[in-house]
Specification:
CATH topology of the largest domain: TIM Barrel
Largest sheet: 8 strands, parallel, barrel
Distance between the termini: 30 Å
Number of strands: 21
CATH class of the largest domain: Alpha Beta
Strand order of the largest sheet: 1-2-3-12-13-14-15-16
Number of helices: 17
Length: 478
């Protein structure tokens, strides 16, 4: 399988439309770099079979593939209705309470005491992704009397969002803890934490993961945006989950928030994923709308590390086609000279540290010499992520002796992960980098590559060496 020439990565969600070995292979051939397992759907046995198929494919193609386990989080839902469906009329009173009896056109069960503990008169409740809206008039610890602000059909088990209300909930339910353990036991590379509200949520998840996987914070609550810089700093990556975020903040604010989050993550050198409804119409259509194509292009122009497909690949009629068109859109954007100008304008200033200075210099040296690639040698992945933060013109060859690190780096912008034995010396590292640059199709004899690493060899997080190597014969040093 040929190497990727695209810099931004593609994350695809697996589901009923994409679970066989043949379907997963087709998705990788179309452009997928990381697979998402949505723990809101499917059993552990279903997900375990998908993991096995991904790992078998990875072994056959010789390319690290990332696995992202996405935890459901504390989803708040109304209960059931006697007829399965009611029609709410604007201006009518409607009661929410903790009575488990089936609801009707005047009331509905909401079996979440934490919601009533946080509600105040005047609060808005958005049901079914905001299609139905209620305003709280009076409330107590067990019920809330509301007025229907926006009416419509409301059916069983629809979700409830409370914009501006900080709920006394941790980010991990009992189900999430079981799913987290499943993910860790089955070699998940990334764990996505849903409905993050504040820094303590991230700290709790990090404690439970204990370094066994990388942690991705999903930004879908306004309260998380209030603590954006701190959350980005503590997490290993962030996801802009525009579905719930777009319900809880006015839709006109979502594009600006997306750009802000991408900018903060890029400044911190943390991977950032743009998700939700990117090619939504392709769930049932073989081609996207022009607006969707523009949405994908915007995320690529902004320099997002990865773009994610959800229902398009999990349950859609055209999963492979959705990946293929996303691949073509991103590739076309990256060939546009304006893409490079926009990346350079948003380039983060390096921090005043040795590793950042070395990595920024590597980008400049590679550009000046028209180097074929920047090869990073990293045990922990930090050297490679610093290179990705620079958004260089040259592709990044991420060399690591750790398969876990190689798989995590599959999410990072511009990084082509390659598993290699640990280098025994500085000279050995140079020779390996040159040989692998040729073997992986990045360079040919007569070209240069730029190499960054931490010395002594194998020292985690200590990027302190920059070397220019000339590719000639058996990779003689320059």
């Amino acid at each position: 399988m040929t190497r990727r020439t695209r810099q931004a990565k593609i994350v695809a969600t697996l589901g009923p439309a994409s679970s066989t070995a043949a379907e997963i292979r087709a998705l990788v051939e179309a452009g997928v770099d990381v697979f998402r397992l949505n723990m809101s759907h499917g059993s552990h046995d279903d997900q375990k079979a998908r993991v096995a198929a991904i790992r078998a494919l990875e072994a056959s193609i010789g390319r690290p593939l990332g696995i992202l386990v996405d935890l459901q989080g504390p989803k708040i839902r109304v209960g059931k209705f006697a007829g399965g469906l009611v029609e709410l009329i604007r201006g009518q009173p409607f009661r929410l309470d903790q009575d488990a009896a089936a609801g009707d056109a005047t009331r509905a069960p909401l079996l979440h005491p934490e919601v009533f503990a946080a509600l105040e008169p005047g609060a808005l409740l958005l049901l079914d992704d905001g299609r139905v809206r209620l305003r709280v008039e009076r409330c107590d610890a067990r019920s809330a009397e509301t007025t229907v602000v926006v009416g419509g059909a409301l059916s069983d088990n629809k979700g409830v969002n409370l914009p501006g209300v900080r709920l006394p909930l941790g980010p991990l339910t009992d189900k999430d803890r079981r799913d987290l353990q499943f993910g860790l036991d089955n070699g998940a590379d990334w764990i996505a934490l849903s409905f993050v509200q504040h820094l303590d949520d991230v700290a709790e998840a990090r404690r439970l993961i204990a370094g066994r996987a990388a942690l991705m914070a999903k930004l879908e609550k306004p309260s998380a945006i209030e603590h954006l810089e701190d959350i980005v700093d503590m997490a290993d990556a962030v996801m802009i989950a525009r579905g719930d975020l777009g319900v809880e903040v006015p839709p006109e604010e979502v594009p600006g928030l997306q750009k802000r989050i991408v900018g903060v993550a890029r400044q911190a050198g943390k991977p950032v994923v743009v998700a939700t409804q990117m090619l939504e119409s392709m769930v049932r259509s073989p081609a996207p709308t022009r607006a969707e194509a523009s949405d994908v292009a915007t995320a690529a122009y902004d320099g997002a590390d990865a773009l994610m497909l959800s229902a398009e690949t999990a349950s859609g009629d055209f999963p492979v086609e959705a990946v293929a068109i996303m691949d073509r859109i991103i590739t076309t954007v990256e060939r546009d000279e304006r893409h490079r100008r926009m990346l350079d304008m948003a380039q983060a200033d390096p921090e005043r540290t040795g590793p950042d200075a070395i990595t920024a210099a590597a980008r400049q040296v590679a550009q000046t010499l028209h180097a074929a690639a920047i090869a990073t040698y990293s045990v922990s992945g930090s050297t490679t992520l610093r290179a990705a933060r620079e958004r260089p013109e040259a592709p990044i060859l991420g060399l690591t002796p750790s398969i876990a690190v190689a798989r995590r780096l599959a999410l990072a912008w511009g990084v082509n992960s390659v598993l290699t034995d640990d280098a025994h010396s500085f000279d050995d590292m140079i020779v390996r980098a040159c040989q692998l640059a040729v073997a992986e199709g990045f360079a040919t004899p007569g070209q240069r590559i730029v190499i960054t690493a931490g010395m002594p060899v194998g020292t985690p997080g200590a990027t302190n060496t920059l070397h220019v190597a000339w590719i000639e014969g058996l990779a003689r040093r320059a």
